[in-house]
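hey m, so remember when u said the tokens were messed up on ur end? i reran from scratch. heres the input so u can diff it against urs
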Amino acid sequence: MRKLLPLFLILIFLASCSLNKGKSGGFIYIVKSGDNLNKISREYNISVSTLKYYNDKYYNDLIIGEKLFIPLPNHELVKQEAQVSAGQIVPRTYNSEKVSDGLIYRVQAGDTIYAISRNFGLTAAQLQELNDLDNSFLAINQKLYIQRFESKMAQKRNIETSEKKHQLADKADSTNKAAADSPNKGDINSFPVAWKDSFLLPVTGSISSPFGMRGGRLHKGVDITAPPGTAIKAAYDGTVSYTGFLRDYGNVLIIEHGNEIVTVYAHNEINLVKKSDKVNKGDVIARLGSTGRSTGPHLHFEIRVGNEPIDPAKIISEINSLKKI
């Protein structure tokens, strides 16, 4: 038995080394209530950049119970910390882009739901709920929406408030027979005659879904497909009244043109203007994408009069000449 004890101790030591492979010269800290990266970095005399580097963190958010590796300030680590601060060593790069209230992250080889959620300060369940994922399978280059987590009920309340505030609420019940009998729901007669045929086609492409009834519901705009990243232009002079993310519309922006006329641009990859910006007809305001409830890259374009949608093809005659798919 005494002969086996040294061997047993050696095995324990080797296992310990294996667990800390690549992270020797430090220890594990378990996050507790009230902790943040600034507080922990001050307590252990290391920079926030170094702390994020050693833990592959992108966001500053911490989760109670999360494990952080704390490097000891020996000569090699101090040298490496200086390199991090100087930009010579940077934390792991994430294939993501900023949107108005979060990020769009593209899945990379080796990613898992757990790893992505941990690095963005979410639980796996929260990440799945944000993206309507019903399993843990991920495809390379798949887009995932990242934001501070809100439950679906909270999101629903916020979306309903935003839609009402920015005149996106649908005043007619989809089961209302009057809506079904009136495919051109808005009062086109109130549209200024001088403005007809003055509105610009926001993007050139093919029509994947026209204005009108679709599956028993009114499709309030026209869907125009084009390559991702295609420039989206303002249809007419106006003021940006809303830019943000709504669950069905994705990245969406609204421009007010006066006379109770607004245009809506949805599913954008990224919005390039902000609320209250003045825009001129033809200004690039967004990039075409596939955010929100979308089956592929396209622009969902609406024209509304008094918050009621009208057929864009009756205002922009060029739409009628686009190829239909």
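this time it looks ok to me. The longest strand covers residues 238-246. if urs says something different then somethings off w ur setup not the seq
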